[in-house]
Design brief:
The complex is a heterodimer of chains A (about 550) and B (about 325).
Chain A: E1 9-16, H1 31-38, E2 45-47, E3 53-55, E4 75-79, H2 94-105, E5 120-127, E6 130-135, H3 156-159, E7 182-187, E8 192-197, E9 209-216, H4 220-228, E10 235-236, H5 243-251, E11 257-258, E12 263-271, H6 297-305, H7 309-321, E13 322-324, H8 347-356, E14 360-361, E15 367-369, E16 372-373, E17 375-381, H9 384-399, E18 403-409, H10 411-414, E19 430-435, H11 442-449, H12 472-483, H13 487-503, E20 507-514, E21 520-522
Parallel strand pairs in A: 1-9, 1-10, 17-18, 17-19
Antiparallel strand pairs in A: 2-3, 4-6, 5-6, 7-8, 8-9, 10-21, 11-21, 12-19, 12-20, 13-20, 14-15, 15-16
Helix pairs in contact in A: 4-5, 6-8, 7-9, 11-12, 12-13
Chain B: H1 2-29, H2 46-55, H3 62-74, H4 88-123, H5 128-142, H6 145-159, H7 176-212, H8 216-223, H9 228-257, H10 260-265, H11 271-281, H12 284-312
Helix pairs in contact in B: 1-3, 1-12, 4-5, 4-7, 4-9, 4-12, 5-7, 6-7, 7-9, 8-9, 9-12, 11-12
Classes of the chains: A alpha+beta (about 550), B mainly alpha (about 325).
Chain lengths: ~550, ~325
């Protein structure tokens, strides 16, 4: 196919039902902001659909083989594409790369992308076209800095007076100059963003669309209508609507939309290993307490075997939404768990597991052992899909002798470390939510499931291990993983850690959801290659009609 | 009268202070968090969130923050939005034209429909005309706007493809074509809101007219041999409008508060949409500014309504 002519397309219409409010990726309040800035602000490289880096500002991807990565895995040398220009016509150089690191890693700048700064000792410019990243220790995940949607490079000239405490209300946050395919025309926070082609964009044949209008606001359902039914919109972000609403729009004869699929957001039920009993007062759900029945592996196994993942995936998410999933790590994917009993839906086996291990039915139909009754409190965020998931699981679990009390709290409350019905305090037995993972699973597996990251009063409920799961065998595997530099061995360790969690039922995975989000595209739109690790708009320069 | 206004203005100050304090306290004590969106995002770990929270000044005790905020707000400075890091006043000014163009116009449309409908309904009491108008009004305010809004979208956008439900705030009316575009994109939200307002006002106007119709002065006017039309329009209407004018004045602040549900349905970037997303984002500087301005307008228009009452009705005297 001949390359499409630059600017031959008219206006590309995009709808985000969460409206962007800021255009600096390092101050982004969420995906919406990151995406809206990505048309302008670019990283050194992007994570492709397979998790492998694709050069963006870099001339090539540094590897050990091409000498870009030092043999001890501490320094990475990034060569820039020659002749790069900012959209205002000024030259792009490695000084901008160094500046972006200084800006982002100044603690007072309070950037949302600060977390990687701890691993990076320095970023230096060895010449105007070369930036050298030095990690504090050998780092097998050597694309940590520079690759992905959090790694945008800002223009030094524009942001030099915005470092530190001045970063907070810097005017440049709302009108950044970038290197990407588009430049900003107008930005109304919370409403609409308009872009025009960047005349200095490096690829003479791209982008195809002359202008982009990114409208924000409304709700997911009407966004789906605008893409699939009226065709007013070419791309609708995160059309996370109940399948009963979405499916008729997709299967209608005159449906105007398509859903490219890529999965990486683990919808899971976290089990509380601490005791959430209100009678404990301040000790409630503290890590040194023990859950009366979820500490029993047989109870956990019974719950897992009585969880109908296939039904949830099919009825609730459908193909545009996700796939049934039993693993914890998404990349790499363990095959060992396919044959495990805890991954198979089998009510009879689940019931037998309880019966054989002393959990007997009382006159009220609820199983108990001594004075411990299998009464579960199960919380999630207020959402039609999640509340239906609760109903499906509750029905099956009650069939085998649990009593399940379901509740929900709005996402803004749920995802806090302050609310009693929040996920961090976790004053319930089970809770359900989702999150995505990096191409390298180390951080996810560490922060969510190791003893050191158990959350509680001591760390103001700021740690990531909300289930208070603690298993020395698992910790040992994660410790080796953090030290291992050989990629094949790392993959094996991730799988080993994954298998421990699945077999021990540390968590009940349900569905591997579409990532980055369930985005709907006009059928007429071509060249879209969604990557589960990237901003939905990372490849907008390649889109055409 | 002057003394009355002065006294009311003085009373308004502690009222507004109390409102601002209660609102600030509720927001400060509610478990809303501007960084909640990051909670399940491993790329933004807790210590980074804490640092951002500190940079936004959220680590200080809320009574202290309240005093700081109040002192700035009195001078018209509502601070910086947590999520867009731009001045809250700028955000509000950006939303105001759209809000007035949709919610304000809808209110005017509502009044324009309600006046003749209410008069006609009362003058033709217990006729078919009255029944039709009363029934329509009854349906109008019983059916919620989120229902009528979606209904209009399904009919006019999805089935007929005549109108868009994506409001574009960048449209400026400068010629006939742009006027058509503006009408096409705003007619549905204006219809939904306007008919709702009209339904409520119609019932008030009708009731007010009916109170006046049996009075002696009306009988006198009839006895003098005045035409029915003149009696209704010149005598009854003028007296009936006194409570209605105050009612309309009291409804004006709501225009500036926007229409949360309708704005959301039609993607209208008005103040209502700003308020609801700001609540969702935990963007308290925006929420407090909108609520405070709303409170000032309510107190202000209450005063205006009282003053109007005295102006229109010579029997009412404030001392």
């Amino acid at each position: 196919m001949a390359p499409a002519a630059r600017g031959a397309g008219g206006d590309l219409k995009i709808l985000y039902w969460q409206a962007p409010t800021i255009l600096n990726p390092h101050q982004a309040g969420g995906t919406k902001d990151n995406d809206a800035s990505r048309l302008m602000i670019e990283p050194m490289a992007a994570y492709g659909p397979d998790g492998k880096p694709i050069a963006v500002l870099a001339a090539e991807i540094p590897t050990v083989a091409n000498g870009g990565v030092s043999k001890d895995l501490t320094t990475v040398t990034w060569k820039l594409k020659p002749g790069l220009k900012w959209s205002d016509g000024s030259a792009f150089s490695s000084a901008d790369v160094v500046f972006s690191w200084t800006y982002r890693c100044d603690k007072d700048s309070a950037t949302t992308t600060f977390s990687k700064c701890a691993d990076v000792a320095s970023v230096k410019a060895s010449d105007p076209n070369t930036a050298v990243v030095t990690y504090t220790a050998p780092n097998a995940n050597f694309y940590l800095w520079g690759v992905g949607s959090t790694e945008g490079i800002l223009q030094q000239t524009q942001f030099k007076d915005c470092v530190g405490t001045k970063a907070k209300d810097c005017p440049a946050n709302l009108k950044p100059i970038g290197t990407g395919p588009y430049k900003l025309v107008e930005f109304k926070p919370g409403d609409v963003t308009t872009y025009d082609i960047n005349p200095n964009y490096r690829d003479a044949n791209k982008p195809y669309f002359k202008t982009v209008t990114l409208k924000g606001g409304g709700d997911a359902e009407s966004a789906a209508r605008a893409v699939c039914q009226t065709g007013d919109i070419d791309y609708g972000w995160n059309l996370n609507v109940p399948l009963s609403v979405l499916q008729p729009m997709l299967s209608a004869a005159d449906s105007k939309c398509q859903f490219p699929i890529s999965y990486n957001a683990l919808e899971r039920v976290t089990l509380n290993f601490a005791n959430p009993d209100a009678a404990l007062g301040a000790k409630r759900s503290e890590p040194d307490t023990k859950h009366p029945y979820l500490s029993d592996i047989h109870v956990r196994r019974a719950l897992a075997m009585a969880s109908n993942r296939a039904q949830i995936a099919e009825k609730q998410y459908g193909k545009p939404g996700g796939e049934a999933y039993c693993n914890v790590a998404v990349f790499p994917r363990s095959k060992n768990t396919d044959s495990l009993d805890v991954c198979k839906y089998d009510l009879a086996a689940a019931e037998k597991e309880l019966q054989d291990n002393g959990w007997v039915k009382g006159t009220d139909g609820i199983r108990a052992k001594g004075n411990v009754k299998l009464v579960i409190s199960y919380i999630t965020t207020t959402s039609a899909i999640r509340q239906n998931n609760q109903q499906i699981l509750k029905a099956d679990w009650e069939k085998i002798g649990f009593k399940v009390n379901i509740s929900n709290s709005i996402a803004d409350t749920f995802f806090t470390n302050t609310a009693p019905d929040g996920y961090a305090k976790f004053f319930a037995d089970l809770q359900e939510f989702a999150s995505s993972q990096d191409p390298d699973a180390t951080d996810f597996m560490d922060s969510n499931y190791t003893c050191a990251n158990v959350t509680g009063q001591a760390n103001n409920w700021n740690n990531g291990n909300t289930g208070r799961y603690c298993n020395p065998d698992y910790d040992a595997v994660i410790k080796s993983l953090k030290a291992e530099t050989d990629q094949a061995k790392r993959d094996a360790l991730v799988i080993q850690a994954n298998d421990i969690l699945v077999k021990d039922v540390a968590v009940i995975s349900l569905v591997n959801r579409t990532a980055p989000t369930a985005n709907g595209f006009a059928k007429t739109l071509k060249g879209v290659k969604q990557s589960p690790f990237e901003s939905s708009l990372y490849d907008i320069a390649d889109w055409s009609k | 009268m002057g003394r009355f206004v002065a006294r009311r203005l003085l009373v308004a100050i502690p009222t507004l202070l109390a409102i601002s304090f209660v609102m600030y306290a509720i927001l400060a004590l509610a478990p809303i968090d501007p960084l909640a969106g990051f909670a399940a995002d491993p790329r933004v770990p807790p210590e980074v969130r804490e640092n951002i929270r500190r940079s936004l000044g959220l680590d200080e005790a809320w009574p202290y923050r309240y005093v700081k905020w109040l002192l700035a707000a009195v001078q018209g400075n509502f601070g910086i939005s947590f999520v867009s890091r731009s001045s809250v006043s700028d955000l509000l000014w950006q939303r105001l034209p759209t809000t007035l163009a949709v919610v304000g116009v809808a209110y005017i449309v509502g009044v324009i429909i309600a006046l003749p409908a209410g008069i006609l309904s009362a003058a033709r009491r217990n006729t078919v005309t009255d029944h039709v108008i009363s029934l329509s009004a009854y349906i109008g305010f019983s059916v919620p706007t989120f229902f009528t809004g979606v209904l209009l979208i399904i009919i006019f956008s999805i089935k007929l493809h005549w109108l868009t439900f994506l409001y574009d705030s960048r449209v400026t009316v400068h010629d006939l074509d742009s006027l058509v575009v503006q009408i096409k994109q705003s007619i549905m939200p204006i219809a939904v809101l306007g008919l709702f307002d009209a339904a409520i006002l119609t019932r008030y106007i009708r009731a007010s007219m009916l109170e006046n119709l049996p009075l002696d002065y009306v009988r006198t006017a009839h006895a003098k041999g005045l035409a029915e039309r003149l009696v209704v329009l010149r005598h009854v209407l003028r007296n009936s409008l006194i409570p209605v004018v105050t009612l309309v004045a009291l409804g004006v602040p709501a225009v500036f508060g926007g229409a949360i549900v309708t704005e959301q349905i039609f993607h209208v970037p008005g103040i209502g949409a700003l308020l609801i997303t700001s609540i969702g984002n935990g963007d308290t500087p925006v929420v407090t500014a909108v609520v405070l301005i709303f409170a000032v307008l309510v107190v202000g228009f209450n005063l205006i309504a009282d003053v109007l009452y005295a102006v229109l009705d010579p029997r009412v005297k404030y001392t």
